[in-house]
Specification:
Elements lengths: L6 H12 L6 H38 L8 H10 L2
Length: about 80
């Protein structure tokens, strides 16, 4: 398999190899692909978690269990759970 990289990406790959962290460009690309797979997997998990939280909120609202929250509090809570 042959791939083409932009000059910026090629420079990044070479810099990682030069740093000694990786032995070859192939290792850099394999690690990047592993991280992409992990990110995609976590993204699906986050979507499922968010749907469950929304459903829980609807159920609580239907039972009258409401608490006022500011948007800042909500956003902070979501970011902290990542």
């Amino acid at each position: 398999m042959n791939i083409s990289l932009t000059p910026e990406l090629e420079k990044l790959v070479k810099a990682h190899v030069a740093s000694g962290q990786y032995n070859s460009a192939s290792e850099v690309i394999r690690e990047a692909l592993r991280l992409m797979i992990q990110r995609d997997s976590l993204g699906r998990y986050y979507d499922q978690w968010l749907e469950a939280q929304i459903e829980l909120g609807w159920q609580q609202a239907e039972r009258g269990e409401l608490e006022p929250h500011s948007m800042d509090t909500i956003v902070s809570g979501v970011l902290a759970s990542r």
